[in-house]
Amino acid sequence: MRKFGFLNFIREQGVVGLAVGFAIGGGVSKLVTSFATDIVNPSIAGLFGLTGLQEAAFEVGEAKILWGSFVQR
Fold it and tell me: How is residue 53 annotated by DSSP?
């Protein structure tokens, strides 16, 4: 049973392995953010006939739920 996976990783790979992991994680994070911002959000806005997601909302009584603003972030 491998109880302390992170500690074992640091012992085996050292600081260089940790740095490579952070670099790869940062790159993947930017890739996912770009995919969501440049492909997913405009596609959703196009499906609903909006120029941008910022204006997407629905009303419940007197409350206005800005779901487009939420999805855009």
Answer: G
